[in-house]
Design goal:
- With 172 residues, this protein is an alpha+beta fold.
- The chain has a single domain (4-124), classed as Gcn5-related N-acetyltransferase (GNAT) (Aminopeptidase), CATH 3.40.630.
- 30% of the residues lie in helices and 35% in strands.
- The protein contains four helices and eight strands; from the N terminus they run E-E-H-H-E-E-E-H-E-H-E-E.
- A five-stranded antiparallel sheet has the order 1-2-3-4-5, with helices on both faces. Strands 6-8-7 form a three-stranded antiparallel sheet.
- A hairpin with a 2-residue loop joins strand 7 (151-158) and strand 8 (161-169).
Length: 172
């Protein structure tokens, strides 16, 4: 599934690579930042970040995909992006998710990474549909979804939080 260094995809400015246990410090710092986590119920503790990291490592074994580390050209951490199974009240889906460090917002990195992850989902992993669940007030992520060709489908509650569901199916 991966080439050297665990890289699963490359874009003009990013490598999407497999997460590693050694990524915990970078991920934990990102998700502990209240401003970074504005559209989430709350910032995450280091233990929650560690549990999230372990869940993603299991997804690689179970599905061949999961969330990937976003690495800039200089090797630095700029966020994460990927695909995960998601159970909604209407049934199973595969979620395309992106989260870029706030110091790198408004550079187009989320769109660039998510487009690469979407391509992997449809071409390498044979998925036929992807969804994004986005806080209704998160205009930036809603814009990313639209740039990716995702269409707003409906509002719903996920884990007790109101979100907007965007979806896109593979075009044949």
């Amino acid at each position: 599934m991966s080439d050297s260094g665990g890289i699963v995809a490359q874009t003009q400015r990013l490598n999407l690579r497999l997460l590693r246990l050694s990524d915990l410090d970078a991920v934990a710092a990102m998700v502990a930042d209240p401003e970074q986590m504005h559209f989430y119920p709350q910032p995450k503790s280091r233990d929650e970040a560690c549990a999230w990291l372990h869940r993603n490592l299991r997804l690689y074994d179970e599905h061949g995909f999961g969330t990937w580390y976003l690495q800039s050209a200089d090797g630095g951490f700029v966020g994460y992006c990927g695909i995960r199974p998601l159970e909604l009240e209407s049934g199973p889906e595969f979620e395309l998710a992106w989260h870029v460090l706030r110091t790198r917002w408004n550079e187009g990195l989320a769109t660039e990474a998510a487009a690469a992850a979407m391509d992997l989902g449809f071409t390498r992993f044979g998925l036929t549909r992807l969804v994004a669940i986005i806080h209704p007030d998160n205009a930036a992520s809603r814009a990313v979804a639209r740039k990716l060709g995702m269409l707003e489908e409906r509002s719903l509650a996920v884990d007790g939080e109101l979100v907007v569901l965007y979806g896109v199916a593979v075009s044949l």
